Amino acid sequence: MRLRVEFTTEPFDLDEAPAHAVVAREVIQGAPLDAVDVGPFGNTAEGDVDAVLDAVDAMLRRTLGAGATRVSLQVNVIGEPGKPADPGEADK
User: Fold this and answer.
1) d(CA 48, CA 70)
2) CB–CB of 6/44 below 8 Å?
3) Cα angle value 31/10/77 (rounded, 5°)
4) 48-65, pLDDT tens digit by residue?
5) What is the b/e burial string over 13-46, where b = at least 16 CB atoms within 10 angstroms of the residue's CB?
6) Helix, strand or coil for residue 88?
7) Residue 74's Cα: distance from chain center in Å?
């Protein structure tokens, strides 16, 4: 099974990235995930079920430890391993 995770960490700081946001980015970029996209207001990544769940566990533990007061998280099933997701498949 393939998953897509989307998440944000708070509190926001528009002047510079807070420590919890930097930690989240490091965890996600260092994990064996596909299609990683990190940004100032949201982050997404895709991968197989174990890789995504392991990365989410590490990201939650480390960002909360680095001062995050809220982590908003959404996980979608987007397909089976080795099969590309069809456009809109996660919305079905």
Assistant:
1) 25
2) yes
3) 45
4) 999 999 999 999 999 999
5) eeeebbbbbebbbebbeebebeebeeeeeebbbb
6) coil
7) 8
Query: Tokens 């998280």 label which residue?
Result: 73
* The predicted structure's pLDDT at residue 41: 78
Nearest to 36 by CA among 27, 24, 46, 23: 46
Residue for token pair 């498949």 = 89
Residue type present at position 89: E
Q: Which helix (H) or strand (E) holds 48?
A: strand 43-48
Q: What is the DSSP string of 52-87?
A: HHHHHHHHHHHHHHTT-SEEEEEEEEEE-TTSPPPT
